[in-house]
Amino acid sequence: MELDKRGIPVRDIEEREREFKATSLACHELREQHARESYSLYQMIGIFLKAPLLMLGKVFGRKLGVDLKLGLSELDRRNYKRKYRQRMGLFILWLIVFIALIAFA
């Protein structure tokens, strides 16, 4: 009713609603695709090898006023569920290996 008062044609409204639904569906499909995506074995090995540098940079970066990102918040924001779990698991695995090396050294 408000749009009729403003003189906006019904056809324009319907066209915009169709465009919005199409865009919304495409966005939903992209988020679903992101949720299923995972790292390759080589990427996981690279993340595991970089984990000590990233974690040390995160800890000491705060003291130096530098904010180093681990990349977890970006993965969560873009709905990369599997990649998020893989990266977190690699960080935890690295911590376990580090503690084991210290304990048995």
Count of strand segments: 0
| CA radius of gyration | 23 Å
The number of domains is 2
Task: Bin the helical content.
Answer: over 70%
Mean pLDDT: 88
Q: Quick one: biggest sheet?
A: none
Count of helical segments?
A: 5
Structural class based on helices, strands and sheet pairing: mainly alpha
Shape: elongated
Poorly predicted runs = none
Task: Describe this protein's structure.
The protein has 105 residues and is mostly helical. It has 2 domains: 1-36; 39-105, no CATH class. 82% of the residues lie in helices and 0% in strands. It has helices spanning 2-6, 10-36, 41-64, 72-77, 81-104. Helix 3 packs across helix 5 (81-104). The longest helix is centred in the first third of the chain and has 27 residues, at 10-36. It is elongated and about 80 Å long. The N and C termini lie far apart (77 Å).
Question: What is the topology?
Answer:
Elements: H1 2-6, H2 10-36, H3 41-64, H4 72-77, H5 81-104
Briefly say what this structure is.
The protein is an all-alpha fold and 105 residues long. The protein has helices spanning 2-6, 10-36, 41-64, 72-77, 81-104.
Features:
mainly alpha, 105 residues, elongated
